[in-house]
């Protein structure tokens, strides 16, 4: 992952509303959540939700798909795993006990199956 991508992702997550949306989508799993349900769950106005979803999508953290009249949003677990890996890439420098709790978290994310597989470069 390039620094520019990491900065964009971290910037997108550096807002209370967007972080709440992303965490909701991570908890929901690969099936995702309809935009209307996100708005109701987080008590967000539709125009604010739309803007925040666009920022998260532009950063590559979420994906959307249409199902009937609904737009379903889901976390991009590959992007999330890539960001965590990037942040931990040079961790520890000879002191693995520092990063062992973080490594366990990353292993759980990577163990969530095909939905979590990092995107291959296009």
Automatic annotation (TrEMBL):
PROSITE patterns: HTH_ARSR_2. The keyword Transcription applies. It holds the Pfam family HTH_20. Residues 1-95 form the HTH arsR-type domain. One of its GO terms (molecular function) is DNA binding. Keywords: DNA-binding, Transcription, Transcription regulation. The keyword DNA-binding applies. CDD domains: HTH_ARSR (cd00090). Gene3D superfamilies: Winged helix-like DNA-binding domain superfamily/Winged helix DNA-binding domain. This is Transcriptional regulator. The lineage of its organism: Bacteria, Pseudomonadati, Pseudomonadota, Alphaproteobacteria, Caulobacterales.
């Amino acid at each position: 992952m390039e620094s520019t991508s990491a900065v964009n992702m971290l910037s997108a997550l550096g807002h209370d509303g967007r972080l709440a949306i992303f965490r909701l989508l991570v908890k929901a799993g690969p099936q995702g959540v309809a935009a209307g349900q996100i708005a109701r769950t987080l008590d967000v106005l539709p125009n604010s939700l739309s803007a925040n979803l666009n920022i998260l999508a532009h950063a590559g953290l979420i994906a959307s798909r249409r199902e009937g009249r609904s737009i379903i949003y889901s976390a991009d677990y590959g992007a999330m795993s890539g960001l965590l890996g990037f942040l931990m890439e040079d961790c520890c420098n000879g002191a693995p006990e520092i990063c062992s709790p973080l490594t366990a978290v990353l292993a759980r994310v990577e163990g969530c199956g095909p939905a979590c597989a990092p995107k291959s470069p296009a």
